[in-house]
Amino acid sequence: MAAHQEKKPSEERNRKSTQNGTRTSQVQWGRAWEVDWFSLASILFLLMFAPLIVYFFIMSCDQYQCSLIDPVIDLLTGNKYLSDIWNKTPTLTYRAAGIYTLWVAFQVFLYVCIPDFCHKFLPGYVGGVQEGAVTPAGVVNKYEINGLQAWIITHVLWFANAYYFHCFSPTIIFDNWIPLLWCANILGYAVSTFAMIKGYFFPTNAKDCKFTGNFFYDYMMGIEFNPRIGKWFDFKLFFNGRPGIVAWTLINLSYAAKQQELYGQVTNSMILVNVLQGIYVLDFFWNEAWYLKTIDICHDHFGWYLGWGDCVWLPYLYTLQGLYLVYHPVQLGTANAIGILMLGLIGYYVFRMTNHQKDLFRRTNGNCKIWGKKPEYIECSYMSVDGTKYHSKLMTSGFWGWARHFNYTGDLMGSLAYCLTCGFDHILPYFYIVYMTILLTHRCIRDEHRCLSKYGKDWKRYTSAVPYRLIPGIF
Ligand code: NDP
């Protein structure tokens, strides 16, 4: 751990402090206590409209060949009523409920019952029991990192079925896509509601709970920081990684299988989507231990935003390019395909190297080489809720000297590459880059707000040393 600690006298612990020159409550850096009207309005908007947005996109593909404009025109001109669209929408089926229950149960089994063996034979892979970051209450959680193994087992079984056992068609996901949407919603709402009740009545760590007093904010952003059942079943790690991200590559494979079934071939654009997103997913699992130090695990509480988001938003909207290509099989020219591949790979390189530099820097406490040189950094300190003082460092060289979130820039380049595979006939596949730009810009601002509360004047020294957020010289 890069953070070193020293105890403060107990009487200093819970008072408001002028920490590092910035007046702030010491318990504030985990999440905002007071809900401003803008946050509340955004939350109400998302709670009401995010499920409708997902439905609108998936329905548009099912009923309008992925056109987002045609259903609007139909409704505005009175050509169709909402009830017509709704009546044509496939309902929840026993088959979908069975598939979904088996799928989630299988992922729970892989997560809980099979300790990691990959780290024993894969050089460089960090798996098995690992520690997370220090929580605002000063707790360090342990996690069983076995996502790569779950991903490998799931995909080996998938291919074994597709090429050998033939127990079900590889198009099964596409063929049940809307009935599965209802199942994903049921799980997403159930887990978010359960997490809220648990936060009130039997939290895993009461000191890491935060109550704003606003029901909607607490439901959306979560009360508990790291809700768990038993010692190992961690909600955040499971829901983000397993039903969400393991499914991502399977969903894309199912789309490719559907293209094969419908057109007798898989287009190069579909292969590109599968390969580029596959690299991103594999990277996630290869670096699952590193993921414990990212914002989702380190800073966000577990509420509807993560619970429903992981069950519904992620698998349904992150895979829109593959879905679109089933309806519009695009065969790219060689130059375009190579250009998109290069953009995707360069984006991935920037994303990975930036994340790697920070991880290496933090793991070695700055005793490493970044681009062949000793890293430059700013010393900083912060306090946890129990008054313990920690020291940390903010790197100002490598990609972290170019911009404060160059990892997001690489992520955005990769996201654009996915969208470009679909050509320019429809706007639906471009939803992803628009969404990622909003998500990562908002995340950047949110993270910086939190870092300012945490590090105070040290953070200001850092932002003077590295003035740009995402694009050097521009933003
Ligand atoms: P970061 O990995 O950028 O982590 C931000 C944290 O890093 C800060 O809160 C701070 O934490 C620490 N930090 C900030 N600046 C420095 C510095 N100069 N030197 C050392 N440490 C620093 O953010 P995320 O967790 O949001 O993102 C991780 C990756 O995941 C990104 O590449 C992002 O693109 C990707 N991502 C993808 C999403 C998707 O849906 N596809 C969604 C979200 C993220 P501390 O308190 O420890 O100092």
From TrEMBL:
Q: Where is the composition biased (Basic and acidic residues)?
A: 1-15
Kindly give the PANTHER family that the UniProt entry links to this protein.
7-DEHYDROCHOLESTEROL REDUCTASE (PTHR21257:SF38), DELTA(14)-STEROL REDUCTASE (PTHR21257)
| GO MF entry, a single one | 7-dehydrocholesterol reductase activity
Q: What is its main location?
A: endoplasmic reticulum
The scientific name of the source species is: Cepphus grylle
Q: Which EC numbers does the record give?
A: 1.3.1.21
Decide whether keyword NADP is in the record: yes
Please state what the protein is called. Answer: 7-dehydrocholesterol reductase
Q: Which Pfam families match?
A: ERG4_ERG24 (PF01222)
Query: Briefly, what is this protein's role?
Result: Catalyzes the last step of the cholesterol synthesis pathway, which transforms cholesta-5,7-dien-3beta-ol (7-dehydrocholesterol,7-DHC) into cholesterol by reducing the C7-C8 double bond of its sterol core. Can also metabolize cholesta-5,7,24-trien-3beta-ol (7-dehydrodemosterol, 7-DHD) to desmosterol, which is then metabolized by the Delta(24)-sterol reductase (DHCR24) to cholesterol.
Name the gene for this chain. Answer: Dhcr7
What is the enzyme's class at the highest EC level?
A: oxidoreductase
